[in-house]
Amino acid sequence: QVQLVESGGGLVQAGDSLRLTCAASGRHVGTYRISWFRQAAGKEREFVADITWNKSTDYADSVKGRFTISSVNAQSTVYLQMNSLNAEDTAVYYCAAGRSPRRSTPSTIDYWGQGTQVTVSS
Q: 74 pLDDT exceeds 90?
């Protein structure tokens, strides 16, 4: 069992930065692929970024170059640094854990956090 708790969301202006934090705990959490997904109102949940136990990372094209995922302490804490935010980044952001050998999709996730709202005003 893995528990995931997100924090750091809020209301910011376009061009601002924000850092989300995912506190991960539970059995063998360090062996999971930890991902960030987001879901905007009326849209499907979409992949944002993920990181593996050996620090390999992957990003959605829409955030590449603006967002950075990182982890510390054997993935007990995973960060999502978000720079140059725009209105299209407005969504609920979810931390997730799964064991996919490649980029995560919602169907490959075993555990989800409760989500944190990010709102970017233009």
A: no
